[in-house]
Amino acid sequence: MTGGPSALFRQSRGGGVPFGGADGAAVLDDGAGFGVLRYQQDPEVCPVEAWKAYRTRLATDAEPRWSQPDAPAFVGVDRHGNVTGGMVPHSVARAVERISARAGIPLAWTGHSLRIGLAATARKKGKDAVAIADQGGWARHSRSMNGYFQRVDGWEDNATAGLT
């Protein structure tokens, strides 16, 4: 993981993740300009607070090498709680499946479902398409991303609504 959105959560080169940037932002240095997260009002869903808690727990529970500035941001953990290395797409899929099973929520999904969910939810909340594309890793004006928007907008922004 080097540069770009895939390295968004890599630690800063300064040895830690600097928080408290301008306008309530947490700046995470990925070297490519993608490293800004905004604090949210509700700490239960705040990505900055979640990131700080995750890194604190990792520093406490894992070998010191996993807390180094060049370590992967997210790590895989085996069933015994041992860090196995940096997460790969399949690691994310396994983690979501394990968490949903533990919560008793049956899911029929793929790893791509997370990106689709981001696009659909952000669109419903009126977020800018360019911002959604940048965060979701799509090309700006992506046809596939616009297809997800059509699923969201199809009934609420229907061209035939109100014509009679």
Q: What would the principal axes of the Cα set say about the shape? A: elongated
Instruction: Write down the overall mean pLDDT.
Output: 74
Oligomer: single chain
List SSEs in N-to-C order. Answer: EEHEEHHHH
How many β-strand runs? Answer: 4
Going by helix content, strand content and strand pairing, the class is mainly alpha
Protein described:
The chain has 164 residues and is mostly helical. The chain contains five helices and four strands; from the N terminus they run ββαββαααα. The strands form two sheets. It has a two-stranded antiparallel ribbon with strand order 1-2. It has a two-stranded antiparallel ribbon with strand order 3-4. α3 packs antiparallel against α4 (129-136) and α3 (112-124) packs across α5 (143-156). The longest helix has 15 residues, at 47-61. Residues 1-22 have low confidence and may be disordered.
Can you tag this structure with a few keywords?
5 helices, 8% strand, two-stranded antiparallel sheet, mainly alpha, two-stranded antiparallel ribbon, 164 residues, 40% helix
Short description:
The protein has 164 residues and is mostly helical.
